[in-house]
Amino acid sequence: MSAKLDLNRVSWVRSSYSGNGGANCVEWAPSAIGAGVVPIRDSKDPQGPVLVFNTAAWSAFVGAVRRGEFL
Question: Would you kindly state where each structural domain of the chain is located, as residue ranges?
Fold first, then answer.
């Protein structure tokens, strides 16, 4: 990523797999996909650290989860 992405300006969305009324989940910023990245954060700590994956790596991870490769 050549330009710095301002994560304070992105819209965060909670995972559709959130349990406990959304208390234990991750959030992601779909608007950042246009910049070629997928930022992920803990919904309980929105000011905390953010993991940023390139879109290819994130797609590979999600595909592996769907195939049950981590069970």
Answer: 13-66
